[in-house]
TrEMBL record, chains A, B, C, D:
Residues 6-66 form the HTH tetR-type domain. InterPro entries: Homeodomain-like_sf, HTH-type_TetR-like_transc_reg, HTH_TetR, Tet_transcr_reg_TetR-rel_C_sf, Tscrpt_reg_YsiA_C. Keywords: DNA-binding. The keyword Cell membrane does not apply. This is TetR family transcriptional regulator.
DNA sequence: AATGAATGAGCTTTCATTCAT
DNA sequence: GATGAATGAAAGCTCATTCAT
């Protein structure tokens, strides 16, 4: 039913991001998004099945671009540990570049109902797959330990980055998020323990 | 105004957890909670200021007990790395023990409105403080590296555990969450890298 | 926000008068008014900000027409005492013509909350101004005494008419309200005292 | 059922006046009145049938005293026109003496539901009867015109005084209400018209 | 394709009254 | 007589979605 292309399709998605970032998820009514996109309320339903579809599409579009950009950048690098650093960098850098998107992603969209959550999780899988690939590569290259459970490592990497961005957004972005790239990478690679001397 | 003690107070909190876990946040009406607690709708307002207050109180009560139990257990141990293992264990074990609570905490309560979120974040701080204490102790004992940024380490520990539990809940708890204690602890301590030989 | 024009706007106002007159102020729920107006509950909120706005608008619309009709009629007359008689006549005649409106105005709307009261008082001022004009004209024409305090005279005129209509409504309109025009006018003009002979 | 005597009965009535004057009719909950009277909520129902009964009783008690005091004073005077002046004076003076009572009587109690209104009107009749008596006496004494309709005169007297007090209360009692006694009396007696010379 | 007026289901909270103690 | 904890009915308002134009 919904025609998921065209200029208006993009306009509506951008409008949704803007409205949600500005007014919060619970104040992001369809009519407000329509006004921001300069279309009629009904027009939204020509491009999307329902409101949840707007949110899920929004997340997929943005997340797709995010993953692709990250993938392109890390594949320029050889070593898995360098790729991991680049992934951490891209994650934090992209979020710090787009204030609205960070708010929407880390705070507002988490309040959405189960249907939207399901769509979001679906879109997230692509990113988790990319993380897995880095881990597997690291093991192959003998850079990461063989006995590291890749599912556990993936949770650590995603969980830490996610928590870092959320915490940064919640603290009104008072510090430079990208400055965390090295400390985080270092911690992932070397762990907490003191090196034997 | 609200009398935040007594048997009914506890009943209502338990009923809220049950209803939210069973029907989801958006289907957890006051009347449903009241029925589950075997009180009249109005009775809830003798013990809580409003619905948000029920949810925040619920989180504070449970989280307070959670943090206290964890603190008591880890303080029986000497070394910071052992304490960290115990904290990981307590986090995962307590969540795996209480199916409803895990769902409420990881999924449903995240959908709540800003007022509830603020109350929840407040309650979470106590837990983050406990994590910080373990990190500081580790540095003092020379068990953890001095040059580890404690804020980054805290984000890693909390972010990883949180992601692990969410992931486990979302996958319908198909595996034993406690089995992740060792892998996670190992990863936190030793990192991803291969040991020099 | 509210679009205060159109056929539906008028329909809702008429429906509100009817429902309030029939069921009383405290039984005039929005849903009842909507049903009477043959619109959905939500439609009311396209034309009015809230329930109080319906009531205030209703009063303003009706009172505005009332004052205008009265003004047009009295301005056809020269002498202030004739104008006063016409004002008394119009007041009593218009009320006796519209059973529902009289009930709403004299009984039901007086039960309304402070917000509505404030709006009503605002609308009443226009009528009081008209009364004042008649008094001033009378003084200019040498028909009314110069030493009559116009504020006191205004209270007498409005207070008496208001009491007359209220009393008539409360007594289930058993007599002809318009028959009071002459006695009231006579009393206003000549007072209680016996003429010196 | 209700025992309409005793110290607590009086306390509750005084408390009701105070609470209504202070917080307004719509904020005068039974529990608030009970607290002000230093009794339990349930105790009110030992002395009154229901909330409406409290309000009606309150009005009757106060109005009874008001009428009696007025009657005693005017009966000291011979002439009906003097009695009328005294009645005007007593009405305005008593209201201006008791701020709370004036607010309750003129503003707040008018918002009450039909049951209370009916009780109030009942209590008012005694006062209207007193006004009638003055008018009849005036006619007998040849002080007031025979051809004055007493019902109309009564409406004028009560309507004007009522409007005067309401207006004074609404204007935050910025002027001295008693200063209106002479102007009002003069207007009632002599009317608006210029004396023939 | 686009519009936007109309729909109507759904829910938190208040408060007069009761009754077991 | 006095208490006050408990009751539960009742209603204004929002907003995603539709559909006639």
């Amino acid at each position: 039913m919904a025609k998921k292309t065209g200029e208006k399709y993009q306009n509506i998605i951008e409008a949704a991001v803007k409205v949600i970032a500005q007014h919060g998820y619970h104040q992001a009514q369809v009519s407000k998004i329509a006004r921001e996109a300069s279309v009629a309320d009904g027009t939204i339903y020509l491009y999307f099945d329902n409101k949840a579809d707007v949110l899920v599409s929004l997340f997929k579009e943005k997340m797709g671009a995010f993953v692709q950009a990250t993938r392109e950048r890390i594949e320029l690098l050889e070593r898995a540990d360098d790729r991991l650093r680049e992934l951490i960098y891209m994650h934090l850098w992209q979020m710090s570049q787009n204030r609205d998107w960070a708010i929407v992603t880390q705070i507002e969209l988490r309040q959405s109902d189960p249907v939207v959550r399901a769509g979001i999780n679906q879109a997230l899988k692509e990113y988790l797959k990319l993380i897995d690939e880095v881990i597997f590569l690291g093991k192959e290259q003998g850079v990461f330990r063989e006995n590291v459970e890749h599912r556990v490592a993936r949770k650590m990497i995603f969980g830490t980055l996610d928590e870092a961005v959320t915490s940064w957004v919640m603290n009104d972005r008072k510090y430079n998020l990208v400055s965390l790239v090295e400390p985080i990478h270092n911690l992932f690679i070397n762990g907490l323990k003191v090196e034997k001397q």
